[in-house]
Design brief:
The complex is a heterodimer of chains A (about 250) and B (about 100).
Chain A lengths: L8 E10 L4 E7 L11 E7 L5 E7 L9 E7 L7 H6 L6 E8 L13 E6 L3 H13 L6 E9 L6 H9 L4 E10 L13 H8 L7 E6 L1 H13 L7 E5 L6
Parallel strand pairs in A: 7-8, 7-10, 8-9, 10-11
Antiparallel strand pairs in A: 1-2, 1-6, 2-5, 3-4, 3-6
Chain B lengths: L5 H7 L1 E2 L4 H8 L7 E4 L5 E3 L4 E3 L5 E4 L6 E7 L4 E4 L3 E5 L5
Antiparallel strand pairs in B: 1-4, 2-3, 2-8, 4-5, 5-6, 6-7
The chains are: A alpha/beta (about 250), B alpha+beta (about 100).
């Protein structure tokens, strides 16, 4: 099967939804939509009046079961070139150049099975959410655990939806850790993800776990190194680092 | 001060997956699962798993085992340069 040439297309913004103080979800209707694999991303390109162009990659948050449109959840990076434009300028009805879906490396779908451990830091949860939404849409019962690191409860993206998924008792469990300000009365994890925490969360899956890790580079480094120390086979570990923004 | 200070470099590093779009533009197919054999240490790694440095004027892809520069990509208004001296070879599955 020859895949279609990757080309830029104009996506029309059909919805903008704030998720947290720093993140918004943008829905784009795409004239040349094609089904993606959960975990893939789109490139977004901005062109200034003088012809200067800049682009960034953003993970798809929506599942492939959602047809003809994609949702990207974007964190606003204060000194960024693209995300402040998306957050502060882009409006419903506007068009934006996008190309995708891109990447065959950091992907999971139900055919790959589990057990599945998803580890996210900050907006690193976005591609993991596409996997979880796909899992739910397929009524999959693949044993799945998510370990999600945020600064505070207000910074947890998709909090209600994740809690709803966990309440469905279909084999999904969510574990949160808060690195700055845990909610009042919180008895769970309150530190950066470390080897001891990973060992606890991965325990029922042991070395069979397929692990997807997405977040700031230093978090991904720490998690990947800890997993290798646990002698998890390296081909079962997939990482996506998105650079220096810290959690 | 020192921009080559190791922690800074580590923090700025992303995965080869981050340049998947650029690679697909050049090769006309997804390249993230393509294997590169490092010409320095002979380790095999998927392009999506290479260490990628994308904040400079071009892209540098490095071997995750020995940090040898596997490939560099520079785009100018009129051309794309892909230098891949650091790869002994690329191995990909046939399409079609």
């Amino acid at each position: 099967m020859v895949q279609p040439v990757l080309e830029w297309q104009a996506g029309r913004v059909t919805a903008i939804r704030p998720e947290t103080r720093q993140t918004k979800s943008f829905t784009f209707a795409l004239p040349k939509w094609m089904a993606h694999r959960p975990g893939q991303h789109y490139d977004v390109r901005l062109t200034a009046p003088d012809g200067y162009q800049t682009q960034r990659s953003y993970s798809i948050a929506s599942p492939p079961e959602r047809l003809r449109e994609i949702e990207l959840t974007v964190e606003r990076i204060p000194d960024g070139e693209v995300s402040p434009y998306l957050h502060d300028v882009l409006m419903q009805g506007d068009e934006l150049e996008v190309r995708g879906p891109i990447g065959g490396y950091f992907v999971w779908d139900v055919r790959l099975g589990g057990p599945l451990l998803l580890v996210g830091g900050g907006s690193g949860v976005v591609p993991l959410m596409a996997m979880l939404r796909h899992r739910a849409a397929q009524h999959s019962t693949v044993p799945t655990r998510m370990l999600y690191s945020s600064r505070s409860a207000e910074d947890v993206i998709y909090h209600d939806e994740l809690d709803g998924m966990a309440a469905a008792s279909d084999g999904f469990e969510a574990f949160y850790t808060f690195t700055r300000q845990p909610p009042a009365g919180w008895t769970g994890y309150r530190r950066r993800i470390d080897a001891a925490m990973l060992a606890e969360v991965i325990k029922p899956f042991d070395k069979r776990a397929r692990v997807y890790v997405c977040g700031p580079t230093l978090l991904v480094e720490a998690v990947a190194n800890a997993l290798v120390e646990m002698e998890l086979p390296i081909e079962q570990i997939r990482t996506e680092r998105f650079g220096p923004t810290g959690v | 001060m020192d921009r080559d200070e190791p922690d800074m470099n580590t923090a700025l590093m992303v995965d080869g997956n981050a340049v998947a779009g650029q690679l697909e533009q050049i090769f006309g197919r997804d390249m993230t699962m393509t294997i590169a054999r490092c010409a320095g240490c002979a380790r095999d790694a998927q392009l999506g798993a290479l260490m990628a440095f994308i904040r400079g004027p071009g892209v540098v892809l490095r071997c995750p085992a020995c940090q040898n520069a596997i490939a560099r990509i520079v785009e100018t208004p009129s051309a794309i340069y892909l230098e891949a001296r650091g790869a002994a070879y690329l191995r990909m599955t046939p399409q079609g």
